[in-house]
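Task: fold both queries, return tokens.
Query 1:
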Amino acid sequence: MDFWTRLDAVRSEWNVLEHSFYRRWSAGELSREELAAYAGQYRHAVVALAQASASAAGRADEPVRRHLAEHAAEEASHVELWDRFVDAAGGDVGAPASPETKACANAWRGSGERSLEATLLGLYAIEAAQPAIAEAKRAGLVKLYGFEPGPATEYFDLHATLDMEHARAHRAWIEPALAEADHDELLEAARAVLSGNWTLLDGVERASLG
């Protein structure tokens, strides 16, 4: 079994569109309070994604350094777009991270022990999943929760397409490194970031039910 087939199995195992929170989102079953809480919690993940890329850029040589630095700057600029959704949902941009959200943000941010290749793979795993997730969230917001297209949906509008390009770019840098990379480490990075997202959703849902 080749590496990308193994990775697809990990992605399928941790497909957050199968999480009960996103299932309820797409069924129109979330309360406004849950959407607001989610918006404030997921903001920490949005920030962590930019931080992960910036940190990796500091450890990379050209031209990977430039790729990661540009990606980090672009993702950092998207925090403002996310904040527009937080405002529309009635959330709090300064909401403290729950333990589950902290676990997700830490997984997305990575550690100094994660190799550059594993960091790139983690970024790829996050962003390859985002177009379908962003599209599902955008559709639910407009069709089921009464949000108007515009500032409230701009983050999702952008990521429904842009992350396809990001994922392709990350994969292009990963491919040449596969011959000598530790495939198990790369797959563990993917598992960590995807399960981290699942954990964040667990926390939001648990708080709403508690």
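Query 1 returned. Query 2:
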Amino acid sequence: MNLRTATAATAFLSIKTQFDNAGDALINRELSRLVARRAKTYVDFSRAPAAFEKSMGIDELPNATSLRKRGFALLVLMILRERLHRRECFLFLNPGGLGGGKLSWKARLSALAYNMILTFLAALGVKVCQVGISYERMGRIERAIAKWRRRIMFSFCVRDRLSQQYVNSIGMPSDEIVPDLSFNLYREDAAPSRARSRIAISFRFDGKAEASRIREAVQQIAQASGEEREYLFIVQVARDLDGMTELQAACQAAGMQTRLVVCHDDIDSLATIYSECQAIYSNRLHALLLAAHSGAAPYAVISRGSQPKIEGMFTDLGMADRILFLGEPTIRFSEAAAFDKTVFRPEFMRLNGYFDRILGPPLT
């Protein structure tokens, strides 16, 4: 990757992700904010629901414009127009977690077609970038698609050391490790917190851990923290609803004071909810990181080896003591330890330093 000089640039994003996931809305929002502070920015929402677009708040950014009509084709035409005028163009691909399973043939063909478009744009001088990503193991065909895409990128940066080790080992090396995009939240302080009497619980139930072990762990948390507290069972990804509803019912039957909170389309409301919590116990990375910014002490409760992006990030941040492995005899739940969220300020500085290097200093 060659660092650019500080000249005016135009940046483009096209949003296609898990639209029922507040964590994905968060990292796409922060990517848009980081880019729009440094370049004229266009964000294509033609494939996104209106609620997702609203949650990202692009229209509030002074240098950003939302696009909905005519979709990705319009975005490509705008890029071509900019390049015809010899303007520097950046295309930022979607952040998030990649790998961990085989794609359908339809998804593979779509990815190959997208690679061809990106190859064409890169040949015209468009700087294709991907930042804020983590990787789990991929199948042979998925690796080939990913390696082709890597070869045309101007900048390719993973967000944790374990991902870096993996992509380096399969011949698609990362340029560097850049902190998770959610650390851009530390540009501003969280809203003032209320009395922190509650505990947040938020889990995914998609094979990453056994539901019975999660239920046992949550009941142990209540025994350590006090069953008289209110426990908020927070659904910030829509597909977690059934599992979280069953978990809440089981814990309520066991004598815990519980409340189910469904909020997967409003990042700011989620932050307010987390500001009322002393701690969060979760196996969702961006539930942990958003809650931590709101002042809740984060504890990752995961099965060993099942969620390398959480293990990798917490280890890189010196927070290995806040990883609790399900089903292991050494696990001990205790009263949540105080958490100083200012330890994440250096991650904010590193993240912004990366965007300063490739896009130049902030425009305003």
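Both queries returned. Flag for query 2: Residues 1-7 have pLDDT under 50 and may be disordered.
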